[in-house]
Amino acid sequence: MDISIVAVGRLKSGPETELCDRYLSRARKSGRPLGLRRIEMRELAESHASRADDRKGGEAEAISAVLSGADRIVCLDEGGEMVDSEAFAGWLRAGADGGISEMAFVIGGPDGLAPSLLARSHRTLCFGRMTWPHQIVRALLLEQIYRATTILSGHPYHRS
């Protein structure tokens, strides 16, 4: 299974980028033996429209354009479902075992995701009810993907 992380906004150099790069590298390495062929990040430019709904609509179009190959779309949104790390790992394993070719995780811009995109998603997850900057959401998601690979491989990184 391939994993794509589609994120609105570009990371600038700094500690968030270093953290994301570290977890991406770890997830790629530990995911290969588990059948995760590719884990990639796709960054999209933020919309500069004057109205929030217009920004979300423009960003939804850009996101949709890169989701054409995804069998599963998972949106990250503060109104989504909260799951623990073991459940997340099991869900990734079930996706890979179930023949999903590509799972795409979508992170919106400062205004969030358009309702049309949320309606298209197969699942919506959240990292708590607080609002997070996209840089931190990326780091959290990449860490959870890495953690899932360690749970599935029996590595001691995760402690229940």
Automatic annotation (TrEMBL):
Top-rank taxon, per record: Bacteria
Function: Specifically methylates the pseudouridine at position 1915 (m3Psi1915) in 23S rRNA.
Enzyme class: transferase
Assigned GO CC terms: cytoplasm
Keywords: Cytoplasm, Methyltransferase, rRNA processing, S-adenosyl-L-methionine, Transferase
Database matches in CDD domains: RlmH-like
EC number: 2.1.1.177
Subunit field text: Homodimer.
Gene3D superfamilies registered for this protein in UniProt: 3.40.1280.10
Alphabetical list of PANTHER family matching this protein: METHYLTRANSFERASE, RIBOSOMAL RNA LARGE SUBUNIT METHYLTRANSFERASE H
Protein family (similarity comment): Belongs to the RNA methyltransferase RlmH family.
Localisation per UniProt entry: Cytoplasm
Record organism: Faunimonas pinastri
Catalytic function, reaction form: pseudouridine(1915) in 23S rRNA + S-adenosyl-L-methionine = N(3)-methylpseudouridine(1915) in 23S rRNA + S-adenosyl-L-homocysteine + H(+)
Residues engaged in binding S-adenosyl-L-methionine: 76, 108, 127-132
Molecular-function GO terms, alphabetical: rRNA (pseudouridine-N3-)-methyltransferase activity
Listed InterPro entries: Alpha/beta_knot_MTases, RlmH-like, tRNA_m1G_MTases_N
Protein name per Swiss-Prot or TrEMBL: Ribosomal RNA large subunit methyltransferase H
